[in-house]
Fold:
Amino acid sequence: MSATTGIGTLTVRPLDPLKDAELLHSWVTHPKAAYWMMQDAQLQDVEREYMRIAAHEHHDAYIGLHEGRPAFLMEKYDPRYVELVGLYDPEPGDVGMHFLVAPTDRPIHGFTRAVITAVMDELFADPRTRRVVVEPDVSNKAVHALNEAVGFVAEREIDKPEKPALLSFCTRDQYLAARGVAI
Structure:
C-alpha cells in the first residue's frame, strides 16, 4: 500500500515482532493508547504478543509509515478465527481491523483520519474483502466518530472477554459513499 494524502505519503510494511518490539512497546504503553489495553506491558509481553500474531494464520500486523517513518500500527484478522469467534455471525468477505496511531509531540491536523482512510484503502484493495468489522471499546467515543466518518455503521454492543465493545461494520459501498466516491 502507498497512499499520498494531504498530509504526505502513507505506506505499510509487515511488522517484525523482534525488530519492532521496542517501538511498539513505546506506543502501546503510552497513556494515549489506553484502549489498546497494554499500559502495563513489559517489552517481552509486546514481543510475545506480536510473535503470536505473526505465527497466526488468520491475523497479521503491519507498521504504517508516514513519509518513511513509523507512525501507526495496523492489524487485520479473520473474525471467523480471531477476536469475534462466537460473538456474531460472520459473512463471507468479512475482515477485522485494528489500528493505533503512534503518540507524537507534534500532531498533524487530519492525520488520524488519513491513517484510517489508508487502512481502509488497504483492506478494500483485496477484492475478497466485502465488509470491514471493528469492535472498539464502547466508551471510545473518538474512535466511534472516526469510524462513522469513514462509513462504519454500529450494529450492537457485545461483551468481549476484555471489554464491552461496539460491533460495527463498513461495506465497500458504505466506505466509498463516505469518501464521496460515486458507486
User: Anything to note?
Assistant: The radius of gyration is 16 Å. The chain has a mean pLDDT of 92. Residues 109 and 173 are 27 Å apart (CA to CA).
